[in-house]
Amino acid sequence: MSRLEIFDEAGHRSGEPVTDHAAIGAALGALGVRFEAWSADRPLSPEANQEEVLAAYREPVDALNAEYGFQSVDVVSLRPGHPQAAELREKFLAEHVHADFEVRFFVDGKGLFYLHVNDVVYLVLCEAGDLISVPAGTTHWFDMGEAPDFKCIRFFTVADGWVADFTGSGIAARFPSYDRFLEAAA
């Protein structure tokens, strides 16, 4: 289940977790973050390749592409045992910003986005069917966990794809990792 938790910068939770998808979308929408649910027009196997995934989500992908003019759309998949899992995870764990917005759609699995906006940190657990679009210039980081298991469609308006400007802040260390977050939510 998708989940939103809100914290102050010191790492203290503010309020109760939000699990209603529309309420998560409304709270994030107030920050300029797009959060919505998509569904495939056909069943997909866990082994579905990029062409099969993009075909199953053709209508919403085409609509989003028409709205933003993406230069590339691809599918990335990380499964337990991936030889570069730790290296890839580390790449996203430090707070950073992008000159472009970051758009991800979770075909399956899950991941945890941390959005740092106006002295507040929003933890957004994205699961299968969730689209999140983090606006350019929004400080954030992402944790896929110690044993990543997800497939995402990624959208880029810049030819270079994912390019981060790291803030150098140590704020991420004050917040629960993906794995601790899931344990606490259980």
What does this protein structure show overall?
The protein is of the alpha+beta class and 186 residues long. It has one domain (3-185): Jelly Rolls, CATH 2.60.120. The protein has helices at residues 21-29, 50-56, 58-68, 85-93, 178-185; strands at 3-8, 34-37, 72-78, 96-97, 102-117, 120-127, 130-134, 139-143, 150-156, 165-166. The radius of gyration is 16 Å and the shape is globular. The chain starts with a strand and ends with a helix.
Quick summary:
This protein has five helices and ten strands.
What is the secondary structure topology, with strand pairs?
Blueprint: E1 3-8, H1 21-29, E2 34-37, H2 50-56, H3 58-68, E3 72-78, H4 85-93, E4 96-97, E5 102-117, E6 120-127, E7 130-134, E8 139-143, E9 150-156, E10 165-166, H5 178-185
Q: What shape does the CA trace take? A: globular
Report the C-alpha radius of gyration, rounded: 16 Å
CATH class: Mainly Beta
CATH architecture: Sandwich
Hey, roughly how much beta strand do the residues contain? 25-35%
- Stated plainly, the CATH topology is called Jelly Rolls
Whole-number count of domains: 1
How many strands?
10
Q: What pattern of helices and strands is seen along the backbone?
A: EHEHHEHEEEEEEEH
Largest sheet: 8 strands, antiparallel
Helix content: 10-25%
Distance between the termini: 11 Å
Supply the number of helical segments. 5
What is the residue-mean pLDDT, rounded to a whole number? Answer: 93
